[in-house]
Write a structure and sequence with these properties.
The complex is a heterodimer of chains A (367) and B (261). With 367 residues, chain A is α+β, with helices and mostly antiparallel strands. Chain A has eight helices and 20 strands. In chain A, the strands form three sheets. In chain A, strands 11, 12, 13, 14, 15, 16, 17, 18, 19 and 20 form a ten-stranded antiparallel beta sheet that branches. A six-stranded mixed beta sheet of chain A has the order 6-7-8-3-9-10, sandwiched between helices. Classes of the chains: A alpha+beta (367), B mainly alpha (261).
């Protein structure tokens, strides 16, 4: 019977990493709950991998502290941090059998022989590879190799498990199968997982919370639902999921504020003046023909620039003055629009979100 | 086969012969029946080999050479591997200074190296001693190991070592248990080349040898100046067989890795 692990609490306090004049990560503050599955999501060079490498100990932070269960581990060497890790390219030891690979961390942590054997068998069973113990890694497929890597990482039941884009080398079908497996193992084991990915769907599917990175900084931390519905800035809204965005201005109006374009104005809670962007998720937008009279909410004239059938729905790419994006309509809808057609976009004002645009330029930092 | 292909083949055969003919000529000469080094040899006999193995001077030189070459191979392989790994870990100007520094014994003329070493060894009482030979030959052989191990390291996936650390292995155990096995093709081939470097080294060895401790090439060189003795041809044949075997070993070990991954 497999025992549950007490997941570690991980805290990053003002972590930063400077490579010469390049800032790879800055002001990273994050608290991960015991047993939580958290994803670090962002484009390449956004600081997510650098952050993971600092947690693992491969990179030394230029500043800040890393705590595991309230204990400062910033200066503790890698091999004494008690973590498990799955690497992007599997990183299996090619000169050892599958069994020896999985046993390696148990050996290093001083488990005795019967215990090692038991834990190795258990870890291999968890990834359904119990019959492959005697094989060499090179004799396995990519998906199987990554499952061995997973077994090796969880074999000694580390309280903290790091994963660095573990599925990016696999094809789509395998990826989805392994996602399910990773979720199940996380549930069974109860360990804390920090998962790095550039794939928003993967992050959405796996995580309790997602940390969105861009240009070395955390943009937003939240549950997948919060990030999708309430992105805190333009980057998060565009990076996570499809959307329609419309440029405008926020102006003071009486005692409150209003988002203003020349085709509509909407009252807003956002306390800001200057350029802003309105964001609507594709499923909240309705397309109606330009001649239609039924207009309940705000409307914007747009042109269909492309159209893609995706099974149950049709995806329209639309463009309009000061904006554009993606709209999805159900296949069953009577209205069928053609490329080049003039249409109107309409939506319930409550389903849109207004985001002030950063007025200050970037601080000249590259990641 | 068209005309240009014939020409190409003829050119290849010619260049090949040009490179190895002087070496191959020595073999028939070592079976010469007469006391002469003239080519072509006349008749067939094993008397020069017999002479080689029954003469204390020749056999002693051969055994000295084998002993020194084996120990040099071990020393140079350990030191060269550590040096190559160290260079792999530092980057930029320190790496290139270090690498060029380690290659120095390969570049400076042996005569200069030999003279310098001789005057130093005279002071330290190392002339004609086993430690003296080992110090000299190891310095000459280390660059070969640095080069072969370095080229294996260039293809080394560092996340293997990182994986070992994360698994709880300290740096030493990760190095021995994961990195060294991964570098084995380069290490073995470096060891073979280190053996060859020591086994057929003559210039530096002449400076630091004494009548009591000589390597085979030194014995040959001295013999050549004294008299025309076809035993030299037998010695040359033996040196050739040994170094060729080592070179083949070196080449084969570089191909070890391809089979495994």
């Amino acid at each position: 019977m497999s025992t549950q692990v007490i997941g570690a609490a991980l805290s990053l306090r003002d972590i930063g990493k400077q490579f010469g004049t390049v800032t790879a990560a800055a002001d990273v503050n994050l608290d991960v709950e015991p047993g939580e599955f958290i994803s670090l999501l962002g484009p390449s060079g956004s600081g997510k991998t650098t952050t993971l490498n600092m947690i693992a100990g491969f990179e030394e932070p230029s500043g800040g502290r890393i705590m595991i269960n309230e204990k400062d581990i910033t200066d503790i060497p890698i091999h004494r941090r008690n973590i498990g890790m799955v690497f992007q390219g599997y990183a299996l030891f090619p000169h050892m059998t599958v069994e020896k690979n999985v046993e390696y961390p148990l050996k290093q942590h001083g488990f005795d022989k019967p215990e090692r054997k038991r834990a190795t068998d258990e870890a291999l069973a968890k990834v359904s590879l119990e019959k492959y113990g005697a094989r060499m890694p090179a004799q396995l497929s990519g998906g199987q190799q990554q499952r061995v890597a997973l077994a090796r990482a969880i074999a000694y039941k580390p309280p903290l498990l790091l994963m660095d884009e573990p599925l990016s080398a696999l094809d789509k079908a395998l990826r989805e199968g392994l996602q399910t497996e990773i979720r199940r193992i996380h549930r069974d084991l109860g360990t804390t997982v920090v998962y790095v990915t550039h794939d928003q769907d993967e992050a959405m599917a796996l995580s309790d919370r997602i940390v969105v990175f861009n240009e070395g900084r955390i943009q937003q931390i939240g549950t997948p639902n919060e990030l999708y519905k309430n992105p805190s800035n333009e980057f998060v809204s565009q990076f996570l999921g499809e959307s329609i965005h419309l440029d405008g201005l926020i102006e003071e109006q009486g005692s409150g504020h209003e988002f203003v374009r020349d085709d509509f104005r909407l009252p807003t809670e956002v306390d800001h003046r200057g350029p802003a962007q309105l964001m609507i998720r594709p499923e909240s937008v309705e397309l109606i023909s330009a001649s239609s009279a039924e207009q309940s909410g705000p409307t914007v004239a747009a042109e269909i620039i492309d159209k893609v059938y995706v099974g149950h729905s049709v995806k329209y790419m639309v463009s309009c003055r000061g904006g554009g994006g993606v709209v999805r309509s159900r296949q069953t809808d009577v209205d069928d629009f053609t490329i080049g057609q003039e249409v109107l976009l309409t939506w319930e004002a409550a389903r849109s979100r207004i985001l002030p645009l950063a007025t200050s330029a970037k601080n000249g930092e590259e990641s | 086969m068209n005309k240009s292909r014939v020409t190409l083949w003829a050119a290849c055969v010619f260049i090949g012969l040009w490179l190895i003919a002087p070496t191959l000529i020595v073999i028939p000469m070592s079976f010469n029946e007469q006391r002469s080094l003239a080519f072509p040899p006349k008749g067939f006999s094993l008397r020069w080999f017999e002479n080689f193995f029954s003469d204390a001077q020749w056999l002693g030189g051969f055994l000295n050479s084998v002993q020194i070459a084996l120990l040099t191979a071990v020393l140079a392989t350990v030191l060269g591997t550590l040096a190559a790994y160290g260079l792999f870990k530092v980057k930029g100007i320190r790496e290139s200074i270090g690498r060029n520094f380690l290659i120095i014994p390969m570049i400076i003329p042996s005569v200069i190296f030999g003279v310098g070493l001789y005057s130093l060894f005279l002071r330290l009482g190392l002339v004609g001693t086993l430690p003296g030979f080992l110090i000299a030959h190891t310095a000459l052989a280390v660059p070969y190991v640095v080069v072969t191990v370095g080229s294996t390291l260039a293809a080394y996936n560092v996340s293997l070592e990182r994986a070992a650390w994360v698994c709880g292995a300290n740096k030493f155990r990760a190095f021995i248990g994961v990195t060294v096995p991964m570098l084995m093709p380069g290490i073995l081939s470096g060891a073979f080349f280190a053996f060859i470097t020591s086994f057929d080294e003559v210039v530096v060895s002449m400076f630091i040898s004494s009548p009591y401790l000589q390597t085979l090439p030194v014995t040959m060189f001295a013999g050549m100046q004294r008299e025309v003795d076809p035993t030299i041809a037998a010695a040359a044949t033996l040196i050739m067989i040994t170094t060729t075997a080592a070179a083949i070993g070196g080449i084969l070990s570089q191909h070890l890795k391809r089979k495994r991954t």
